[in-house]
Every structure is written in structure tokens, then in C-alpha cells.
Automatic annotation (TrEMBL):
Keywords: Cell membrane, Membrane, Transmembrane, Transmembrane helix. Residues 44-94 form the Lipopolysaccharide assembly protein A domain. The chain crosses the membrane at residues 7-30, 50-71. This is Putative integral membrane protein. InterPro entries: LapA_dom (IPR010445). Residues 75-100 are annotated as: Disordered. It comes from the Bacteria. Residues 80-100 have a biased composition (Basic and acidic residues). GO terms for cellular component: plasma membrane.
Length: 116
């Protein structure tokens, strides 16, 4: 299984390197269209290789997706936490009640009852 993972990562690495080599041309990224830039009086422009734009877009998309899922699953995590707290409280209560029930019994008999 480990070799399959290494082969997969190697293939991904080769693909990313080939995309980077094929897209070395510089592109100009502009923050706002010209009409909005004139309206706001602010515009930001940067020149980067195309592969940086492509791979950066993929990375940003993955990051947004992970954060979106983490926020979406918040209700499930909080429900699980609440359920675990209730379970621990119930287990403590059961131990306490068994302790009261078995106060006057012999310890060996109590252990035998718990085992069955």
C-alpha cells in the first residue's frame, strides 16, 4: 500500500512539474476591471507565471472547500460532544447507583454480579 501511495504522489508530482514547465509565460493579474478601477481610484496589478496562477487557484479552492466543510459539519461535532457528555454523566450515575445498591453486600458477590 505504501508503494502505491508513493507511485501516486510521484505521478502527481510529474504532472505538476509538466504543467509548470508548459505554462512559464508571464500573465498580468488585475484586481478590478478598468471601469471599477476608475470608479474607486484604486487598482492592483501583478505579473506572475501562469503556472503559479493555476496552482494557486487550485490551492485556494481546496482551502475554501475545507473551511466550508468544517463550518458545515459544526452542528454534527457539537451534537457528538453533547452526546458524549451525556453518556459520561449517565455512566457516572450508574456507577453511583450500583455503589449504593451494593453497599451492604459482600465484595465477592458484587464482583460476581458485575461479571455476569
Amino acid at each position: 500500500m505504501r508503494y502505491i501511495r508513493y507511485a501516486f504522489l510521484g505521478a502527481i508530482g510529474i504532472i505538476l512539474i509538466s504543467v509548470a514547465i508548459a505554462n512559464l509565460a508571464a500573465v498580468q493579474l488585475v484586481l478590478l476591471p478598468d471601469a471599477l478601477a476608475d470608479l474607486f481610484g484604486f487598482n492592483f496589478t501583478i505579473t506572475l507565471p501562469l503556472f503559479v496562477v493555476i496552482l494557486g487557484s487550485i490551492a485556494v479552492g481546496l482551502l475554501i472547500g475545507f473551511v466550508w466543510e468544517w463550518l458545515r459539519e459544526h452542528k454534527h461535532r457539537s451534537e457528538k460532544s453533547k452526546t458524549q457528555k451525556e453518556l459520561k454523566q449517565t455512566q457516572r450515575e450508574v456507577r453511583r447507583l450500583k455503589g449504593k445498591q451494593n453497599e451492604k453486600k459482600d465484595e465477592v458477590l458484587v464482583l460476581l454480579e458485575e461479571a455476569s
